[in-house]
Amino acid sequence: MNKIILKFIDLYKIFIFIALSTFNFDLYAQNKSNFKQVEATGRSILLPDNIETSRKRALEDAIYIAALKGGADINGFSSISSNTIINDQSVVKPTNRVIDFKILSETQDKQYLTIKIRAVIGDELSKNNCKIRPININLFKGSISVDTNVPSELARYTSLWYNKTYEIISKFPNVNVNNFQNRLLNQIIKSSQNPSFDYNAITKGIPTIQAGNYSLVPKIVITKIYKNSFANYLLSISFDLYKGQNIKLDSSKSYNLLINYQLDSKFQFIKNISTMDMDIIDQNVTNHLSEAINSFISDIHCKPLEGKLTVNEGKLQVDLGSKQGLKQKQIGMVNGIKIQNSMLNNSILIVHTEDVFDNYSTLLPLNDNIKLTNLNNKIVKFVE
Predict the structure, then answer these.
(1) Does residue 148 sit in the same domain as residue 268?
(2) pLDDT of residue 183 exceeding 80
């Protein structure tokens, strides 16, 4: 009997889900993007003596329906007495929330007040934002540090591995590289501050760094360590990543590889016969370099595409374009904005790209009530 009751409850839940799907909105799972733009219509009984209450209720209804369009959880509850179902209830709860919205229309008839909105739904806290997009990297001169007790053979190979770092990055797919391997980044910063009196700026020029581009400085350090009677050497490859025209340090990561070189012995003969083949060591280091760079580039892909907003001749602009991976109608999020929509308890403004050029784009805010001047110098993060 209990099994029959459970089956009945499951069928009841399915019935409720199908019934909800036949309304003037669709219940569907959120796609791979963190955000989705939807339209929804809400309705309230018209209260002639209190239009504001009717408007608020209709807007609440529209916002709730918009949230449901991002997906819903349906939970069924049954009260059972003496193996008999005496009460059934279902709770429909949105799995996403409305981030921002715009009122498209408001109409009234004798009975109802109806509001139609365009809303952006999703979860701004989602971290799953890893997308393959163009990455522009300026490769600058790095550094090599070798301990004095490192064998000369290993020391020579360290220079080769340093150069391989540049080769691997330059050949990486979806990465556009500007090679400034013979220029120091600190020197570029100094030159840009006073180019008229800087020798390097006059003779070599100053590399142009776009707002959405990265600057990369690799470093290789090799030191001797002792482990299990072996003379081992720790190879550390680190990448200092700087972002934008301000050349601000964005991240610094290191990848280590232990090289088993030879037995630690007082006898040269034992050292010689125990020394690992350099071709094998070289191949292991090259594989390690490729894995480290692959991991490093993947981390960059997972960083949100973000830029600074400016207002130019009445147009909202961002210092990112197609060369940085920005697309038409791409949604962006601006935090820390006071919005007049009292229905939403957040300070997030949604914008989307209007026109996308090579290195900049124009944007439109979803909310018409916002003053563009309030967005000047704000940071926008784009979702993909």
Answers:
(1) yes
(2) yes
